Each structure stands twice: as C-alpha cells, then as structure tokens.
C-alpha cells in the first residue's frame, strides 16, 4: 500500500479530498501529509449550505495530527473559499478540523482527554509535546463549545456558594446543579448583581422551573433570588450545614472565653478540649467520651452551649413546617435567656431568616453538592499553583466541573 493511500485511510478522507504527498523528516522527527482536492468541485457555504463554485483558496494551513509512532504528524492543505451572495466570501469546512483550530479533531479530542486526566496544563504539554498556549487554547475552545451546546434552562435544584479566588476577601460566586453535581455559572464576585447575571439569562417562564435554591445566609444572594425567581420566598433554603457551622463557631467562642476565665483561677479543665465540643454526640470518638461526660456533669458555660448545639440538630428531622417552627422558636427563647453572648448573637442571626430555614422541611436539600464542587475547585487551583487571571480560573472550573460536552464534532 502506498503511503498516500495509507494516510488517506488513517485520516478517513473521502472525495473530493485525497492525500497528495507524504514527507518524512527523520532528523526533525516529523511527518508532513499534504492534502489536496479534486478540480471542478462545488462546495457548500459554511453558513447556509448553498452549493457554490470555488472562488479561490486561502493561504496554506497546517494542522497538528495524532503522532505517527514517535514522529509528530502535520496536515497541510489549501482551503477553498466560496463567494455566497448572502454571506460573502467564506472558507469551506474541512472534514478533519474545526474552523480556526490548530489541531485535527482527533488530536484535539486526545488533548482534551489528557487535560482531564492530568488536570494540569503543564503536564499535558509535556505528554503531548505542545506549548502551553496551544493546550490552553484547546481548553478554552472546548469550554466555549460546551457552553454553546448546553440547554438554556436553569436546573430544578440550585446550590449557591462563594469561592475564594485569592486571599484578602476576593471571592467568586459559584452556582451549581445540586442533582447533576455540575457548575452552572461562575460570577466575578459575590454581590447581588453577580448572581443576578445568572438569573437574567433566562425568561420568566424558565425561572419558574426552579423548585428550590440552597444557599448560606449571605444577604446579596437572598436579594438576587427574591428579585428574579418567581415565588422565591418559598423556594430559598438556608443551608443547614452553614447554620450548624455558625452555631459550632459560637460554641467555640464560649469555650475560649470560659477557658481564659478558668486559667486566671489556675483551672485547666478546658485545656485541649476544642475539638471535643465541635463533634456531634453520635460522632464523638470513644476515647473522648469520658472527658466529655466529666465536663458535662460540671456547671460549665461551654457544656450548656454544646447542649444547645446538639438540641438544634434535632430541627432537621422534622417533616412538618408547623412543628419545626414551634421547636425553633423554643430553641431561640432558650438561647436568648442563656446569658451566653456568642450564643445570643447566633440566635439573633437565625431569627430573621426563620421561614427560609424551615423551608428545609419541604425541600430537604442542602449545599453538600456545592461544597463537594468547592473541594474539587480547590484541588484544581492547588494543582495549578493558583491563578493570577480570573477568566482562566473560570475556564478551568467550567472545563473540569461544568459537565459540558467538550469534544469537537465532524461537520
């Protein structure tokens, strides 16, 4: 079999395209495949599909293809241009690559696969023997391709959380599909308008599709959702894990304050007990149980605060909003009368969004999926040793966490 026939079959070329010549450069470690087309062919306009005669040819172009053994392989071709009465002069589509791409579709698919497995651009560059710019360009094209193919409808259950871009209270807003476990939207900061940009992509009818939105108690997120989502007051669910985190932090403040008071009296009972008070009772390791039981028997303030935390955990077992509301109001009264400033402060914080804490009884969703995606995003950032460019960080998030259809397709 001739080398031209071999590469025609490998590339899957069919009329009017054929391999005209193959050059092997052993010193340079490359194979150059020259592709041509038959004369007198009528070509389709890439926009409307109308068949037209060849007007002229664009400048010769080169695409990187899958390696031939240890040799880099390059395709060379002059792409015909047609003059469409409606759309003007345009290059026709070639069957081996997408428009404006540097690689053949098979090579681009392989680079995407290697990027997903390596999870770093630099590692992909070493394996594929390409430059950083070439690898990043493939990632960026894949994300734009995937977003263009994605259905323009919001997920039924959304999770909204913040993600630190860098130190110094520099945050990004991440919207995710709680059921699909994918990132749907990334905004520049965590303002009301940031989240509003996500909702404004959809019509009022599409926004009615949203059944529930899980979020922490960050007010700008609440305001944006109330403004854009129909009947949002009954759909917003303040995340129970964030609520319990705030209560746990209040318990720790009570412990620290009391520990300082006891140390003045040369009492070290609370020394090295920080993490004991942060455990749920059923999750407490057996080795810590004797210590906790001994401290519970005393009249310590932190023991009282810990009991409040454990009691609040029972709220999430209620299925009836009415009974849950009675429970939460009794708990808030207990906290207000406790004379423990950190607990009183967290009680005040939970008083104003009372109804949107209780919506958990109806929707039973949490931001757990969003937190899982946050961990994945952190891993992406860590492997890249951080991102200086915010847009590059967003592209990487969409590439690895967006659940997008990234691969090029033959026209």
TrEMBL record:
Domain Transposase IS204/IS1001/IS1096/IS1165 DDE: from-to ranges: 158-397
Limits of the Transposase IS204/IS1001/IS1096/IS1165 zinc-finger domain: 43-87
Superkingdom of this protein's organism: Bacteria
Domain Transposase IS204/IS1001/IS1096/IS1165 helix-turn-helix: 92-143
Protein name (record): ISL3 family transposase
């Amino acid at each position: 079999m001739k080398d031209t026939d071999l590469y025609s079959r490998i590339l899957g070329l069919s009329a009017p395209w054929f391999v005209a010549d193959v050059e092997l450069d052993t010193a340079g470690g490359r194979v150059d495949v020259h592709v041509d087309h038959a004369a007198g062919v009528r070509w389709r306009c890439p926009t409307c599909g109308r068949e037209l005669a060849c007007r002229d040819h664009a400048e010769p172009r080169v695409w990187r293809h899958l390696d031939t053994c240890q040799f880099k392989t390059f395709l060379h071709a002059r792409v015909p241009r047609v003059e469409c009465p409606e759309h003007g002069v345009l290059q026709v589509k070639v069957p081996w690559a997408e428009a404006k791409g540097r690689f053949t579709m098979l090579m681009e698919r392989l680079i995407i696969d290697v990027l997903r497995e390596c999870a770093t651009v630099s590692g992909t560059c070493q394996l594929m023997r390409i430059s950083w710019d070439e690898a990043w360009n493939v990632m960026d094209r894949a994300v734009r391709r995937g977003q263009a193919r994605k259905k323009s409808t919001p997920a039924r259950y959304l999770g909204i959380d913040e993600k630190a871009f860098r130190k110094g209270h520099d945050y990004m807003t991440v919207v995710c599909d709680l059921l699909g476990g994918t990132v749907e939207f990334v905004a520049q900061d965590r303002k009301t308008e940031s989240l509003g940009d996500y909702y404004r992509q959809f019509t009022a009818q599409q926004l009615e599709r949203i059944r529930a939105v899980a979020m922490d108690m960050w007010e700008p997120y609440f305001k944006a959702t109330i403004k854009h989502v129909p009947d949002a007051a009954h759909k917003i669910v303040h995340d129970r894990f964030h609520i319990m985190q705030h209560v746990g932090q209040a318990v720790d403040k009570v412990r620290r304050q009391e520990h300082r008071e006891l140390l003045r009296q040369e009492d070290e009972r609370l020394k090295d007990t920080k993490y004991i008070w942060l455990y749920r009772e059923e999750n407490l390791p057996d080795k810590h149980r004797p210590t906790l039981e001994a401290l519970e028997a005393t009249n310590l303030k932190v023991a009282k605060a810990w009991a409040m935390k454990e009691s609040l955990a029972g709220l999430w077992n209620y299925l009836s909003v009415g009974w849950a509301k009675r429970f939460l109001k009794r708990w808030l009264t207990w906290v207000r009368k406790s004379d423990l400033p950190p607990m009183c402060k967290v009680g005040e914080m939970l008083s104003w969004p009372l109804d949107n804490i209780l919506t958990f009884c109806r929707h039973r969703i949490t931001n757990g999926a969003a937190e899982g995606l946050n961990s994945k995003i952190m891993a992406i950032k860590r492997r890249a040793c951080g991102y200086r460019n915010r847009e590059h960080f967003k592209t990487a998030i969409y590439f690895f966490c967006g659940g997008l259809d990234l691969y090029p397709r033959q026209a």
